[in-house]
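Key result, reporting period 2: structure in, sequence out.
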């Protein structure tokens, strides 16, 4: 009966209990921990564990496992040990993870003033870096505690937040005998600002009553600069009315049209 229960547990594990590795070095240690926790207590053989590794790793890493298995074809335990060593070498060394995290930060785009979602994503990324830094496994992340390390991050912020961040950083230096603020200081600031701007309670509606939106004519190069018609939301039924341009606008339009005809 106990063997049958373990069989059912193994089958359930293969179908739902494991997740596919995403081939990102910064995710490997978390994935490895999840994988080992999921299979603990199931009394899997080395061959069974190699099968699961091959199934749930990415294509490239699965090839590493297959090669280790081929080399140690008569000794699955040795193959399993070498497979984990190869995986750690390729995806779990501090240098590899640090390079992946710094690259991820470098490629993150600059945040525009109204892109609150992107600001929240930046805050989440900084929290991920802070968590990895506090873990102590990645000593290279201490670079983020320097002015050179934090400057590229501040440059990704909208101008208003840059000024606010620099102001708070200067105040920190004054209060701490000239010491530069640590990375955690800027992380908390940016994360807090992102949370404020993404509070659903404070979200402003984009469909304010009475809002006037221009109907642009930029598709015709000769009409650029001509005052456009306007559309206005009116009444409870949100009907759209087209408001004609003023007489002076029409006169300018006619003059422009005559000039175009003369040049042609």
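The corresponding designed sequence is given below.
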């Amino acid at each position: 009966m106990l063997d049958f229960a373990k069989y059912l547990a193994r089958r359930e594990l293969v179908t739902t209990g494991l997740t596919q590795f995403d081939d990102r070095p910064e995710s490997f240690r978390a994935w490895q921990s999840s994988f080992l926790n999921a299979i603990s207590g199931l009394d899997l053989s080395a061959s069974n564990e190699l099968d699961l590794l091959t199934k749930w790793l990415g294509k490239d890493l699965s090839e590493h496992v297959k090669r280790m298995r081929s080399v140690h074809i008569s000794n699955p335990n040795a193959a399993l040990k070498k497979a984990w060593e190869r995986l750690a070498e390729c995806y779990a060394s501090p240098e590899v993870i640090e390079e992946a995290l710094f690259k991820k930060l470098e490629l993150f785009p600059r945040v525009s003033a109204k892109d609150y979602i992107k600001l929240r994503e930046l805050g989440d990324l900084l929290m991920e870096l802070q968590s990895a830094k506090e873990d102590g496994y990645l000593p290279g992340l201490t670079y983020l505690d320097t002015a050179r390390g934090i400057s590229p991050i501040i440059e990704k912020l909208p101008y208003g937040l840059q000024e606010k961040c620099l102001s708070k950083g200067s105040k920190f230096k004054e209060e701490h005998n000239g010491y530069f603020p640590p990375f955690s200081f800027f992380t908390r600031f940016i994360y807090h600002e992102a949370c404020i701007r993404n509070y659903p309670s404070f979200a402003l509606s984009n469909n304010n009553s009475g809002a006037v939106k221009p109907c642009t004519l930029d598709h015709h190069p000769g009409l650029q600069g001509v005052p456009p018609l306007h559309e206005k939301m009116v009444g409870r039924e949100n009907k759209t009315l087209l408001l004609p341009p003023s007489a002076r606008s029409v006169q300018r339009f006619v003059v422009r049209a005559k000039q175009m005809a003369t040049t042609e």
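Confidence is low (pLDDT under 50) at residues 205-247. The chain has three domains: 2-92, 95-202, 212-263. This case is discussed further under Risks and Mitigation.
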